[in-house]
Amino acid sequence: MASVETQPQSSKSSSDNEVIIETRNLTKIYRDFWGRQKVRALKALDLEVRRGEIFGLLGPNGSGKSTTMKLLLGLLFPTSGQALVFGQDPTSIATKERIGYLPEESYLYRFLDARETLNFYGQLFNMPADVRQKRVNDLIEMVGLKWAERRQLKEYSKGMTRRIGLAQALINDPELIFLDEPTTGLDPIGIREMKDLILKLKEEGKTVLVTSHQLADLQDVADRIAILHQGELKELGRVDALLKVSDETQIRAKGVSEEAKAEIRAILEREHAENISVENPTTTLEELFLNIVRESEARPGRRAGSDRS
């Protein structure tokens, strides 16, 4: 019996570590009419995104986030280097069938309602009518638009439009979802709802690549992030590791008297304190981001740190 239990655990670990997206020395240079270099949008990017994780691409405007995503979607071709999605070229039709994409601006038919919109995109994937109908129902329920499913999209607010855009991106039940600035233009409630939906996708085993300049958004949902600046990778790693202040220690406790606090952990344990936590404190993603940008501008071409996966 013991050997039977060990095998599934090994398989799960292997599946969790499966690389879904890989870039090797990926470079994109935009040229003018005469072939002269105009903009180096991306320089020698090396990344790996693993199955089941939420991976964030963070950077200011012009940092290479959108270029990276378009290269991975096969919408642009690299100047040099290679991008692989599911181990294949991003332009492969078989690869595209396993992908969902929410652009920064959703281009939807304004005179269709939510149900008609999702039915239309389901037909593009040649989904059988009964499967399509169930998928449409589930997605409308998931994004919380049941009450407005028969309203034309031209009547939708920005938040509602983003939610139906996400539903459209998920109509084919993709394994990998690209979300480009998913919280742009949303109010705080809409942002929270969008983040909850992204976390729900992870719970379902989906792999999510999300770009954002909203620092707190990625801090709340991403497992790992890559920070890009001027087309170069400046930092890469787990969010908790990147935000940890390694040379400081903080102690947190609940229900402890003032006298007990002075004696630190030994007294706290003897006093049966609740929720004792001795750990490295963290900075914020915003502070980390700004420091990396400042260092990058002061010392161009130098990466701020190593991969803290």
What are the low-pLDDT stretches, counting only 5+ consecutive residues below 50? 1-14
Give the helix/strand class.
alpha/beta
Spatial sequence of strands, sheet with the most strands? 5-6-7-3-8-9
The string of secondary-structure elements, in order, is HEEEHEHEHHHEHEHEEHEHHEH
How many separate domains make up the residues?
A: 2
Q: End-to-end distance, in Å?
A: 34 Å
Structural features, described:
The protein has 309 residues and is an alpha/beta fold. The protein has two domains: 19-248 and 285-298, Rossmann fold; 249-281, no CATH class. Helices cover 38% and strands 25% of the residues. It is built from twelve helices and eleven strands. The chain has helices at 2-16, 65-72, 93-96, 114-124, 129-142, 158-169, 188-203, 215-221, 239-242, 258-262, 264-270, 285-298; strands spanning 19-31, 37-50, 54-58, 80-85, 99-102, 176-180, 207-212, 224-229, 232-238, 250-254, 274-279. A six-stranded mixed sheet has the order 5-6-7-3-8-9, with helices on both faces. A three-stranded antiparallel sheet has the order 2-1-4. Helix 4 (114-124) crosses helix 5 (129-142). The longest helix has 16 residues, at 188-203. The radius of gyration is 23 Å and the shape is globular. Mean pLDDT is 85; it is low at 1-14.
How do you describe this structure in short?
The chain has 309 residues and is an alpha/beta fold. The chain contains twelve helices and eleven strands. Helix 4 (114-124) packs across helix 5.
Keywords:
AAA+_ATPase; 309 residues; ATP hydrolysis activity; disordered N terminus; 11 strands; six-stranded mixed beta sheet; Rossmann fold; 2 domains; transport; three-stranded antiparallel beta sheet; ABC_Transporter_VariousFunc; 38% helix; alpha/beta; Putative ABC transporter ATP-binding protein YbhF
